[in-house]
Specification:
The protein is an all-alpha fold. It contains four helices and no strands. It has one domain.
Length: 139
């Protein structure tokens, strides 16, 4: 069995990587357009987040196994916030990919009917979709 300090160092290293990755994802989402290379990059980020979430869950479980019950609540509080952030970004990536695809298809339909929606309105709709989805995940 690995000692507790080693497990915590491994988890800290993974958290550092994840925080840097989350910043990169935020930038990609902000600048996202329906470009194949950008879509591929977002999908790679999503896969990395899923993989690292599994690693963190495993490390967290091993750490909890070595703690006294009195320390469970604090440990769970500390780990849950990052877990929710990761899940939110995964959802944001999925929504961005699907939303741009839907906007592209509906844009084609609207062009044929001469009705156009502004880009800022599309971004607002994406934001509210992501916000609603994130709230749904938390409940």
């Amino acid at each position: 069995m690995e000692d507790l300090s080693r497990l915590r160092r491994r988890r800290a290293a993974n958290r550092t990587f994840l925080n840097k990755t989350l910043e990169k994802i935020d930038q990609q989402l902000e600048d996202y357009t329906d470009d194949k290379s950008k879509k591929a990059k977002l999908k790679a980020f999503r896969d990395t987040l899923n993989e690292k979430l599994g690693v963190l869950n495993e490390l967290n479980a091993k750490i909890l196994d070595q703690l006294d019950e009195d320390d469970f609540e604090k440990e769970i509080d500390e780990t849950s916030e990052l877990k929710m952030t990761i899940q939110e970004r995964i959802a944001n990536i999925e929504l961005a990919i699907k939303r741009v695809y839907s906007l592209h298809e509906s844009s084609s339909s609207r062009e044929s009917s001469s009705s156009h929606e502004s880009g800022s309105s599309q971004v607002s709709n994406l934001f509210f979709s992501v916000f609603f989805f994130a709230i749904t995940l938390m409940t």
